[in-house]
Specification:
This protein is mainly β. The protein contains two helices and eleven strands; from the N terminus they run E-E-E-E-E-E-E-E-E-E-H-H-E. The protein has a single domain, classed as Jelly Rolls (Sandwich), CATH 2.60.120.10.
């Protein structure tokens, strides 16, 4: 069992020194316990997380800077710096940086589930099909691409 500990994760620090490359994005884990997991993220232009579902987690993204185009429950929406994105469990969502600038944001999920372990396993995995295969074993279900994609 991972208990939440009191303290500060300083700027530039991460859990166990981890900095992950996930599908071209940079994820820096900041906090983990059984009840929640959080990370700072940077999405360069053109990077994205394909539509997927967290069957057992609620996910949140606080936009620090930039613009995300999202597919949320089948609807296209936009989030900008200062916005909070709420992604309830079982709701399909995809996250896209279609702009010409980096997006910086702060993610957290509750409960943690297997997400931290998933990020450890897909760090530097360049084959999207392999990421999808590994994710399925870690309680994240990627959706098939739309017809004609």
């Amino acid at each position: 069992m991972m208990e939440l500990t009191a303290g500060i994760t300083a700027s530039g620090e991460s859990i166990d020194g981890n900095v992950w490359n996930i599908l071209g994005q940079t994820y820096i884990p900041k906090q983990i316990s059984d009840s929640s997991f959080s990370w700072h993220a940077k999405f360069p232009p053109g990077t994205f997380v394909p539509p997927h579902i967290h069957p057992n987690q609620d996910e949140f993204i606080y936009m620090l800077d930039g613009r995300f185009d999202l597919v949320l429950g089948g609807e296209e929406v936009v989030a900008n710096g200062g916005d909070l994105i709420r992604l309830p469990r079982k709701i399909p969502h995809g996250i896209f940086n279609k702009s010409d600038s980096d997006v910086t944001c702060f993610f957290w999920v509750t409960p943690t589930g297997k997400l931290y372990d998933l990020f450890q396993k897909i760090h530097n995995v360049g084959d999207p099909e392999e990421v999808v295969r590994i994710a399925a074993a870690h309680e994240i279900d990627f959706l098939p691409p739309p017809a004609g994609a």
